[in-house]
Amino acid sequence: MESDKQITHNELTESLQRLLVKNYDAEKDFIRAMQHLEHPALRGFMQRQAAKRSGFATELDRELHNLNETPKSSGTVVADLHRTWIELKNAILEADVSTVLEECLRGEKNSAHEYETVLQSHEFPQHIRTVINNQLSRIYRTIEDLQQLEDITKLQ
Fold first, then answer.
1. Which of 19, 23, 25, 11 is nearest to 76 (CA)?
2. Contact 153, 101 (CB under 8 A)
3. Which residues of 22-36 are buried (b: 16+ CB within 10 A; e: fewer)?
4. Which of 44, 46, 93, 138 could in theory staple to 34 by disulfide, Cβ–Cβ 3.0 to 4.6 A?
5. In the chain, what's the furthest Cα-to-Cα distance?
6. Mind listing the pLDDT tens digit for each residue in 81-132?
7. Rounded to whole angstroms, how far apart are CA atoms 41 and 107?
8. 3-class SS at 36?
């Protein structure tokens, strides 16, 4: 008897597309964060995170192509609206480092939640589950890094 969580081709494709779009959005968010920071080390950190998310998107893109599916090519309207709101808020408040880090942390926690939800929803083929789990682990590390950076900036 098959598991109720056995994933269909359409569910697999939809889940991978959701994560792909989430990574497009996260990459844009890190690039925007980098633009609001003057500290070279923090700008470098944000640039590395954007590159990491681009790499995640490439991995998911590859998996979708392996399924003979066409990957989505951009992020969500909701995320674009959120970025616009953050830019407006930053312009009004002259965003300090802790505000930028706080927004990045919130975004990464949302990403982790999205990944967790996708993993709990279905039984993925093992190679795809491995890709998703590896990316989630790296998101958890980014959350830890952002929390440490946020703590450091509060001390200054």
1. 25
2. yes
3. bbbbbbbbbbbbbeb
4. 46
5. 59
6. 555 555 545 544 556 788 888 889 999 999 999 999 999 998 999 999 999 9
7. 20
8. coil
